Amino acid sequence: MFEVILVTGGAGFIGSAVIRRLIAETDVIVVNVDKLTYAANMASLESARNSKRHIFYQVDVADRQSIRDIFKQYRPGAVLHLAAESHVDRSIDGPRDFIDTNIVGTYTLLETAREYWTQLGDDKQNEFRFHHVSTDEVYGSLGTAGYFTEVTPYLPNSPYSASKAASDHLVRAWNKTYGLPTLMSNCSNNYGPYQHPEKLIPLVINKALRGQSIPVYGKGDNVRDWLYVEDHVSALLEIVTRGKPGETYNVGGYNEKQNIEVVHDICSILDDIRPAKETYKDLITFVEDRPGHDQRYAIDAAKIAAELAWKPTESFASGLRKTVKWYLDNQHWCGTTLEQYQGQRLGLTVTK
Question: In the annotation, is 160 catalytic?
Answer without folding.
Answer: yes
